[in-house]
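Memo to structure team: turn this sequence into structure tokens by end of day. - J.P.
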Amino acid sequence: MNSKRPRRGSRRPPPRRTGKGFGRICAVVGTLDEARAALRAAAARGVAATLVSPPGAAAYLGAGFFWGVVEAARAEVPGIAVEAVMDCGDDPGWALAALRTGFKSIVLGGNRRARARVAAIARAMGARLLARPPAAAAEAGAARQRMRRR
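Reply from structure team:
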């Protein structure tokens, strides 16, 4: 009998990791102080930074406010590659507002048809649409929400 069993010791290589210590710092930030701290940490390690808004922040912070936070922090800590990701929750209107503001990465959940339309608009504007925030940011955002509920 010739059964196909996986060979012992043959394993997939571990997935590439991002976040602290792996070439990029990913942080959920809602204030200028948090953004400054994240960029200073990235500068100290000599890596790039991804600043992600809290979950659904487009509705209560606004795309313009978060853009201003990122730009102010960027001006205070120059020389760091910074990617700003705006979380728009499930509302395509907020996603379009974030694109108009200048974000190149936005998070949009909800209706698949609406997401497909916003994704086409984002591609045309040179931006990208994410269904979920970056992994490290999602974990931090969930922890932040649990702390606020207490």
